[in-house]
């Protein structure tokens, strides 16, 4: 625990404050020294230049080129070294060459080595004369080593490699190719010093001159000029580190051991400095990664260099401009150093990193945000000093006031100086997340768009909104330039209004992946809508009927919205207003114990659909057009915003109000009514026309709703009478959080403004603000990859049976549930079956065994994009407690404080009412009907425990084989096959008996006790009647006499099938565990032909695939039927019809077979499988039976801020704080917030859901019940079909 805390403080806290630098005890002194000096240089260099330079130009002229040169050299060398590891050439040196180098340098130290000089000189000559002694091999690195090293080693250049210039044919292109493998010695730790090229050349030259002065080496004339230069480039840092001349015996022993080690072959990489100049380097991947982060692409290196230069340039500009004084200059230089150092060695993991392991994107966060803040500081300062006479004023506030701009500039300066704290807390996300968040927030709050599913989708939606505004702006500007009067509105403005409604309708119906069918429908509908609203607007109805029309429209939107979005949803809830004990508007399925049909469409559901249709397609467009007509000229007047800015604001406000009304009008009526009342009766003088008032109040109300949900989550979570402490830290944090309630409220307001999660720290009562996220929340596109036979190797399927755990096998049911929701979710939401909903809402679907969290992400006009997260069937203890909380009713509660006086009829007790209001969730529906599968699992061990039951299974196995061979269309071909006839020749003898030990009288019905095996005679006695009956059911009957070839084939196949079962059971069929193992092996198709008597089957393997495998699978189903009607299948007719029926209506397959998944997703009526579960020490076999039917779910709505906060807390705790405790306090059950269920649904490995669906879009056109009374998509084909059907009627 102490070491983990120190690691967090070192790699988390200190590294976040310094930008990535920290003292790593697991690295060598050279690595830590290099990091320290580099960080000090990046900090001290700009600060020193600023302090010593009097003129502003020298710091800028010196600082930026030095930083550019430094980063170019470091990035280029780092990239080249990684390429050398990936694709570089490898050279092996033998003992003689290594001793050559050792003799040359060790001659400086002892007489013993000096005496070896002659031999070494001879070695040199031999090396020059022949290349046979030096063995050089090269290869291409295909993969980097992934071995774990106990200590990391710094980059070292070993003397065992010779750099060469003069013989490129022999040295630069070796002929022998060898794959390099990382040996144990290569993984050992080694401390050295990092030397650049110049220092290496200098030290080499120095040592060479010393050796010449002592005459311990051959003369210079012995070596060619290029060879001598390459020898100077060959340096061993181990030898350079020892410069003492100690002649002690210990040192001599050490040198002797070095000589023995030199006998081994060493491997080096060729690092090419110039086209014909290379040096040998000896290091590994972890050594290089310990020095600097790896940039895999050239573009990444270029981007890092550009960002480093930009940081230096912008930082220098701000220092020159004098924005910082005194100690703040040093603080600003510290910020610059952290931003630049993170490009070399980033913080891993960062506090805002969404994933475990190395995050390549997070390294660019600090410099990018630094550049943005510096640019913003400069722009704000420039704007404060160069403000024009035109002042932009809204609601009494002058936004071009120099004092306001200076205050904003100072705020950004303070924020920039706090970068170390900001990144330590994790208030800023990685760059791609920020871009997606920014585009999404601007599109939602400014243009009325929807949430998006990816970065590209966010950019696409944002660009579409910009293009729409640009197209509409010209029409609006032209109309405003035309003449206006009290009773006349230009026709061009009516055209603008018609196009505005049509384009808003089209944009509201677009998802991240628009389909052609919807585009075709929108083309027709948009034309109709544009013409219709143009005609309405041009009729001057919005000018003649004022102000009566405005009051009527306000009254309509208030009454219709109140009825549609408040009264009806409350009446349909399970506990209306948390006072009534039952729903006041019940569905037909409410009192049904088991739902057998699709949900019946009730009258109030139809009413809800039509009210919603009228509200968003009639009332809201009329209100917006009414405000456009009455406010446009006033907005564009010189007293307000003038024509240019006024036209832009009119276009943006109209587009935003219409798009948001079309997409999700749930809370629009509250905004409209409040805005009208507030600016009509309370603060009429502050009104900036009702159009702009509605625009800005819609943004304000979305933030207020978010603040309301956050505060409700916080108060619910920390309520002292229901707090559940998951650890000792929770008990400590509970009273500690009380004095900080005011700060908590400020955090909630700030997080609501920026739409950031407010997460409980380590699951406690202390809340902190996380970084901004899009509505999608998770930055990774994670979804479950099911393990089956289509994506695993055959060897692993036969030996280890991958994917045999319950979670992997059960994930298919959540996948099927996702498909069902894809067809029905959008229509059910429009029918009001899930109550009110908005972007980002989270729901839990709970049934007997399925518990799934549904996250609504993108909500458009007639579409919903969602993601489903399935939890474990048999969850943990904490999960079970929370499942009980959402499934148990409170109708029987009779408590009132401390007593139990009871409650009024159909009402909740006081305690139940109070408790329901202090939950972060509520039950909306108890009988939500959805198509799915009922799952029945029976223990195969209990069904096959006794020998009689195993004998019945074997009998059905034999009869199944006979059925499939007689009904096969290839039967005649098999009977005429000469190879088969030859292999079955012994079986044709009427006296033949198979005495294989696998046959057992306890299991085989046709076992002959006298002959101790299965004879042909005993087989015919038992199964000849069944063979004859199956032949009579063929269209072309065959001879089924006792001596016929058909009986011989059936006998051979049945013996083979049972022998395969015995082989798979290891010839221990009497043992239940072995029998089940063999049965499961045959069920999944693993047939092992081990007897020479069965090799005739290889003549046509279709016999195994089409006869034996279906036979063993069908026998399992027939064995199950035997328990319901033991003697029914004694009649051949009944048995035959049963097999035919099962073939048509039942899919029997192994769950690892892709056919199983295909059958489930294609809604097959029934499925059966034999499951072998090996999980958590269990080893059991189950018979799984699936029957398609309508399932009943409870729909629980969860506070979306509760979900976002708990998700953010888990991500921070596991990724940044590295808490790996499986029983950590943050995942203990908390019924008031469903903490365990929500945290379990996080993306793996943060959570542990068994299934996470891809982002799935549901369209209203796919809902059959909705199309019956509302109609389907309007397309040319549907119009043609309607006309033709009407004509024929």
Structure explained in plain terms:
By secondary structure, the protein is an alpha+beta fold. 54% of the residues lie in helices and 9% in strands. The strands form 5 sheets. Strands 8, 9, 10, 11, 14, 15, 16, 17 and 18 form a 9-stranded mixed β-sheet that branches. A 3-stranded antiparallel β-sheet has the order 1-2-3. A two-stranded antiparallel ribbon has the order 4-5. Strand 2 (266-274) and strand 3 form a beta hairpin. Helix 1 (2-18) packs across helix 17 (419-425), helix 13 runs parallel beside helix 15 (365-385) and helix 35 (947-966) crosses helix 41. The termini are far apart.
Large-scale geometry: globular
As a percent range, the share of strand residues is 5-15%
Span between termini: 81 Å
Please bin the fraction of helical residues: 40-55%
Class by SSE composition: alpha+beta
Q: Give the count of helical stretches.
A: 47
Organism: Chelydra serpentina (Snapping turtle)
Family: Belongs to the pecanex family.
Transmembrane segments: 36-54, 60-77, 298-320, 364-380, 414-439, 451-475, 487-507, 519-536, 548-568
Protein name: Pecanex-like protein
Helix and strand topology:
Elements lengths: L1 H17 L10 H24 L4 H31 L2 E4 L1 H12 L4 H5 L1 H13 L38 H5 L24 H17 L11 H8 L4 H5 L7 H14 L3 E9 L2 E5 L3 H7 L6 H24 L5 H15 L23 H21 L7 E2 L2 E2 L3 H16 L1 H7 L5 H15 L9 H27 L9 H18 L7 H23 L2 H4 L3 H25 L30 H33 L6 H22 L4 H15 L7 H29 L9 H10 L3 H14 L3 E3 L6 E3 L24 H6 L6 H25 L11 E5 L4 E10 L2 E8 L6 H11 L22 H7 L4 E19 H4 L3 H20 L4 H5 L2 H6 L9 E2 L19 E2 H17 L12 H20 L7 H12 L18 H23 L7 H14 E3 L5 H8 L4 E10 L2 E21 L1 H17 L18 H6 L10 E2 L3 E4 L4 H7 L5 H13 L1
Parallel strand pairs: 14-15
Antiparallel strand pairs: 1-2, 2-3, 4-5, 6-7, 8-9, 8-16, 9-10, 10-17, 10-18, 11-16, 12-13, 15-16
């Amino acid at each position: 625990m102490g070491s983990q805390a120190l690691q967090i403080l070192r790699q988390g806290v200190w590294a976040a404050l310094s930008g990535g630098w920290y003292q790593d005890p697991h690295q060598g002194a050279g690595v830590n020294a290099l990091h320290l000096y580099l960080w000090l240089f990046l900090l001290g260099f700009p600060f020193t230049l600023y302090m010593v330079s009097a003129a502003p130009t020298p710091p800028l002229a010196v600082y930026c080129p030095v930083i550019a040169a430094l980063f170019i050299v470091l990035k280029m060398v780092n990239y080249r070294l990684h390429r050398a590891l990936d694709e570089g050439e490898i050279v092996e040196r033998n003992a003689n060459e290594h001793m050559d180098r050792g003799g040359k340098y060790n001659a400086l130290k002892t007489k013993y080595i000096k005496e070896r000089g002659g031999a070494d000189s001879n070695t040199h000559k031999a090396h020059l004369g022949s290349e046979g002694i030096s063995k050089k091999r090269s290869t291409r690195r295909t993969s980097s080593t992934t071995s774990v090293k106990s200590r990391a080693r710094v980059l070292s250049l070993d003397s065992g490699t010779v750099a060469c210039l003069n013989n490129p044919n022999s040295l630069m292109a070796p002929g022998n190719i060898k794959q390099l493998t990382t040996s144990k010695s290569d993984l050992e730790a080694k401390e050295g010093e990092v030397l650049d090229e110049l220092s290496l050349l200098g030290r080499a030259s120095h040592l060479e001159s010393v050796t010449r002065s002592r005459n311990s080496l051959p003369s210079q004339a012995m070596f060619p000029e290029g060879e001598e230069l390459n020898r100077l480039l060959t340096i061993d840092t181990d030898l350079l580190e020892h410069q003492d001349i100690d002649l002690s015996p210990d040192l001599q022993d050490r040198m002797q051991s070095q000589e023995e080690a030199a006998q081994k072959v060493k491997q080096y990489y060729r690092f090419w400095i110039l086209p014909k100049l290379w040096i040998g380097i000896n290091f590994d991947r972890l050594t290089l990664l310990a020095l600097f982060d790896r940039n895999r692409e050239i573009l990444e290196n270029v981007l890092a260099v550009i960002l480093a230069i930009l940081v230096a340039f912008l930082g220098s500009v701000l220092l020159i401009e004098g924005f910082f004084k005194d100690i703040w200059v040093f603080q600003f230089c510290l910020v610059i150093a952290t931003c630049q150092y993170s490009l070399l060695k980033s913080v891993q993991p960062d506090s805002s990193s969404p994933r475990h392991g190395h995050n390549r994107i997070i390294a660019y966060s600090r410099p990018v945000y630094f550049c943005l803040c510096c640019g913003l500081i400069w722009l704000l300062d420039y704007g404060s000093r160069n403000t024009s006479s035109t002042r932009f004023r809204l609601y009494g506030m002058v936004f071009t006031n120099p004092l306001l701009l200076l205050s904003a500039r100072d705020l950004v300066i303070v924020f920039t100086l706090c970068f170390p704290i900001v990144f330590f807390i994790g208030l800023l996300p990685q760059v791609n997340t920020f871009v997606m968040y920014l585009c999404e927030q601007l599109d939602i709050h400014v243009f009325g768009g929807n949430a998006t599913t990816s970065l590209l989708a966010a950019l696409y939606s944002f660009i579409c909104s910009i293009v729409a505004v640009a197209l509409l702006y010209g029409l609006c500007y032209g109309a405003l330039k035309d003449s206006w009067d009290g009773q006349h509105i230009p026709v061009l403005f009516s055209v603008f209004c018609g196009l505005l409604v049509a384009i808003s309708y089209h944009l509201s119906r677009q998802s991240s992946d628009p389909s052609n069918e919807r585009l075709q429908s929108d083309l027709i509908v948009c034309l109709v809508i544009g013409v219709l609203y143009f005609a309405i607007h041009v009729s001057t109805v919005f000018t003649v009927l004022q102000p009566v029309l405005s009051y009527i429209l306000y009254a309509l939107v208030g009454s219709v919205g109140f009825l549609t979005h408040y009264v009806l949803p409350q009446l349909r809830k399970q506990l209306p207003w948390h006072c009534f004990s039952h729903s006041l508007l019940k569905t037909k399925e409410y009192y049904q114990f088991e739902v057998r049909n699709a949900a019946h469409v009730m009258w109030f559901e139809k009413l809800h659909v039509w009210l919603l249709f009228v509200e968003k397609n009639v009332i809201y467009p009329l209100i917006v057009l009414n405000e456009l007509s009455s406010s446009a000229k006033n907005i564009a007047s010189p007293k307000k915003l003038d024509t240019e800015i006024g036209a832009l604001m009119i276009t943006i406000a109209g587009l935003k109000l219409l798009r948001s009304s079309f997409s999700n009008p749930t809370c629009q009526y509250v905004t409209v009514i409040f805005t009208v009342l507030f600016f009509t009766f309370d603060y009429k003088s502050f009104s900036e026309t009702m159009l702009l008032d509605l625009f800005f109040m819609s943004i304000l109300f979305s933030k207020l709703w978010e603040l309301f949900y956050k505060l409700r989550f916080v108060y619910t979570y920390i309520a002292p009478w229901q707090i559940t402490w998951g650890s000792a830290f929770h008990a400590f944090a509970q009273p500690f959080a009380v004095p900080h309630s005011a700060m908590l409220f400020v955090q909630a307001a700030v997080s609501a403004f920026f739409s950031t999660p407010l997460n409980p720290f380590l699951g406690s009562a202390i809340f902190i603000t996380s970084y901004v996220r899009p509505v999608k929340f998770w930055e990774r596109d994670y979804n479950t990859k099911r393990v089956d036979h289509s994506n695993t190797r055959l060897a692993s399927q036969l030996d280890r049976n991958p994917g045999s755990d319950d979670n992997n096998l059960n994930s298919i049911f959540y996948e099927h549930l996702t498909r069902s929701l894809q067809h029905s979710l959008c229509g059910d939401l429009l029918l009001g079956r899930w109550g009110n909903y908005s972007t980002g809402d989270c729901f839990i679907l709970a049934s007997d065994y399925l518990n799934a969290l549904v996250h609504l992400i993108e909500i458009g006009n007639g579409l919903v994009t969602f993601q489903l997260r399935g939890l474990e069937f048999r969850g943990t203890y904490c999960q079970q407690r929370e499942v009980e909380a959402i499934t148990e009713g409170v109708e029987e509660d009779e408590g009132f404080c401390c007593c139990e006086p009871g409650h009024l009829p159909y009402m909740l007790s006081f305690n139940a009412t109070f408790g329901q209001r202090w939950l972060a969730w509520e039950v909306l529906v108890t009988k939500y009907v959805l198509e799915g599968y009922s799952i029945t699992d029976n223990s195969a061990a209990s069904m096959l425990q006794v020998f009689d039951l195993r004998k019945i299974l074997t009998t059905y196995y034999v009869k199944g084989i006979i059925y499939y061979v007689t009904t096969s269309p290839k039967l005649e071909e098999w009977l005429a096959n000469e190879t088969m006839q030859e292999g079955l020749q012994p079986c044709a003898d009427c006296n033949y008996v198979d005495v294989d030990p696998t046959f057992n009288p306890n299991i085989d019905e046709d076992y002959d006790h006298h002959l101790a095996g299965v004879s042909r005679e005993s087989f015919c006695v038992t199964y000849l009647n069944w063979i004859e009956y199956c032949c009579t059911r063929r269209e072309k009957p065959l001879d089924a006499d006792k001596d016929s070839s058909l009986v011989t084939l059936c006998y051979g196949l049945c013996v083979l099938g049972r022998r395969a079962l015995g082989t798979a059971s290891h010839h221990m069929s009497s043992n239940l565990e072995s029998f089940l193992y063999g049965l499961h092996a045959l069920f999944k198709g693993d047939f092992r032909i081990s007897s020479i008597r069965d090799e005739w089957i290889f003549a046509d393997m279709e016999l195994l695939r089409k006869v034996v495998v279906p036979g063993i699978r069908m026998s399992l189903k027939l064995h199950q039927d035997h328990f319901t009607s033991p003697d029914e299948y004694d009649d051949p007719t009944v048995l035959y019809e049963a097999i035919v029926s099962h073939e048509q209506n039942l899919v029997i397959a192994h769950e690892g077979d892709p056919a199983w998944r295909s059958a489930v997703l294609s809604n097959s009526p029934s499925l059966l499988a034999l499951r072998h579960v090996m999980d958590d020490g269990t080893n059991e076999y189950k018979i799984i039976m699936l029957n398609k039917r309508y399932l009943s779910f409870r729909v629980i709505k969860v506070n979306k801020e509760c979900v976002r906060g708990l998700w953010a807390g888990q991500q921070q705790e596991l990724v940044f704080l590295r808490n790996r405790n499986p029983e950590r306090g943050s995942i203990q059950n908390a019924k008031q917030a469903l903490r365990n269920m929500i945290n379990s649904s996080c993306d793996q490995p943060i959570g542990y859901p068994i299934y996470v669906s891809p982002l799935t879009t549901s369209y209203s056109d796919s809902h059959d019940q909705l199309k019956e009374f509302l109609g389907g998509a309007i397309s040319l084909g549907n119009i043609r079909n309607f006309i033709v059907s009407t004509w024929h009627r």
